[in-house]
Write a structure and sequence with these properties.
492 residues; 3 domains; two-stranded parallel sheet; 20 helices
């Protein structure tokens, strides 16, 4: 008797292409991996800090970063086409000595499992590393008064486009040229020296990360029996010979360079504090377009590479965000072919992270809206739908509140970070951590109830008056602002 054919799922109906077997294996390896924690980052950072105690803070930071980039253990794992992980192991994360786990907290995590994946799995750390952390590393950090894990809470977008265009050696050259123009008899110029020297030192180290992976790829290729995997590894080696030291020339090089940038941003602080990726369909599109036009890359291969990238970033959880769509600096719609490839990649991978947004504006094509809605129908929590026109207006409004004015071109380049707030890539510095968030929907609801919570009829907001007595929209706005102000003062 013939078995009835299974009805197609929603995923079957919305996918334009099926993920390759490589992507399925990488996804399974990620979902089924054993989370681990290591002290490699903390060990290297601590040693570098001990050796630079007499030097300026800027110099210490640069030398510590350089030591981490040059000494962190690295490897390349099966099926990978893009390389580099923030932890020394495939599913590893770094312990920060200013906020270390205790044996009790690790045991609690072992019971609860991994919070990112929501799975019941142990988070492993060896007894030897735990002893080193408790007896050597943490005491040093505390002796230095370093009890805060982060100097800021991230939530910014680094200038990926500049790295792709210049490479780290190009940025180093820029710093050295500025140094050469300084007048060392001018006190203000003299103060700039440690920073620019630190930039040059850090950029030189950052440029070397590719060579480390290139050497590892060639070592693995020499040992590899499978012809296709050997070819993959040799291609990785060739790409890492160039980037991120030099400008990217191809789509594959651009993705690899972006991955190295993100890796080293995390290494610089020892954790991922909402360092986000911006509108990747915009700054990666020239490389994609050129490769497709010149026949260097098929659309299928480009899709697989982007799928690999999403899985790589997903390994760090949901703290990173990226976006597609929006508008160009001239105000025209920014959606391009790569925007759709990104949405397809999120469909293929269906992971918690990275957080993914589609920026909607008055010119957004219906096809992109439909594709985004198909992704939403999968129930994986993607995408966020964010209003690019509102983003632009918010950015322009900064100049009306006492701060420096934002140009229209910069305002149109804004993208989301962290949760959803807008940032201008390469120009915003992020923000300090704050203690609580404001629920704007609740504030409006409290306007409708004069500050009384519907669930238990208790006061949860300001007395803003009976909304039935409001006669103008301005009165509603004023009441809403009062409810928000009450929240900020009273909810901790």
């Amino acid at each position: 008797m013939l078995q009835a054919k299974a009805a197609p799922t929603i995923l079957d109906r919305v996918l334009e292409t099926k993920p390759t077997q490589r992507i399925e294996r990488l996804r399974e390896a990620f979902l089924n991996g054993q989370p681990t924690a290591t002290v490699d980052w903390a060990r290297i950072a601590t040693k570098a800090m001990m050796g630079t105690e007499s030097e300026p803070v800027i110099t210490r930071r640069a030398k510590t970063f350089a030591a981490i980039v040059r000494e962190m253990p690295i490897d390349i794992y099966p099926d990978e086409l893009l390389v580099g992980r923030s932890g020394a192991k495939r599913h590893g994360s770094n312990i920060h000595p200013a906020n270390p786990p205790t044996r009790k907290s690790l045991n609690s995590r072992k019971r609860k499992g991994d919070p990112v994946l929501g799975l019941t799995r142990q988070i492993a750390i060896s007894d030897e590393e735990m002893k080193e952390l408790e007896e050597e590393i943490v005491p040093y950090w505390r002796s230095q008064g370093r009890t805060e894990m982060v100097p800021h809470y991230g939530h910014n977008i680094h200038n990926y486009e500049k790295v792709l265009r210049k490479g780290f050696m190009g940025i180093r050259k820029e710093a050295e040229e500025r140094l050469s123009r300084l007048d060392l008899t001018d006190p203000e110029d003299l103060e700039r020296v440690p920073f620019l020297e630190g930039v040059a030192l850090a950029m030189e180290a950052a440029a070397e990360i590719g060579k480390r992976f290139s050497q590892r790829a060639r070592t693995l290729a020499a040992e590899e029996a499978d012809g296709q995997r050997k070819a993959d590894l040799l291609k990785i080696a060739g790409i890492c010979d160039r980037v991120p030291a030099a400008p990217a020339k191809t789509f594959h090089e651009a993705l690899q360079s972006c991955l190295f940038v993100r890796l080293m941003v995390i290494w610089e602080l020892g954790h991922d504090a909402g360092f986000c990726l911006g509108r990747m369909d915009q700054y990666l599109y020239p490389y994609y377009q050129s490769d497709i036009r010149e026949g260097r890359l098929s659309k299928e291969d480009a899709q697989e590479l982007l799928d690999c990238y999403i899985i790589k970033v997903g390994n760090a959880g949901a703290s990173a965000s990226m976006a597609v769509g929006g508008v160009k600096p001239d105000g025209s719609d920014a959606a391009n072919e790569l925007s759709y490839v990104f949405i397809e990649a999120i469909m293929h991978t269906r992971l918690v992270g990275p957080s993914f947004a589609v920026l909607i504006d008055s010119k957004t094509p219906d096809d992109l809206l439909i594709k985004a809605c198909q992704l939403s129908a999968l129930g994986a929590g993607h995408p966020q739908f964010l209003n690019s026109d509102v983003f632009t207006a918010q950015a322009l409004a900064r100049g009306t509140m006492g701060g420096p004015a934002v140009t229209l071109e910069d305002a149109r380049s804004a993208s989301n970070v962290g949760c959803l707030e807008l940032v201008i890539p390469g120009k915003d510095s992020g923000y300090l951590y704050f203690t609580h968030y404001s629920n704007h929907a609740l504030a409006l609801d409290l306007v409708m109830t004069n500050g009384i919570r519907r669930s238990d009829q208790k006061r949860a907001g300001a007395k803003t008056g009976d909304p039935r007595q409001f006669r103008t929209f301005e009165e509603v706005q004023a009441a809403f602002r009062n409810q928000l102000a009450w929240m900020r003062k009273n909810i901790q």
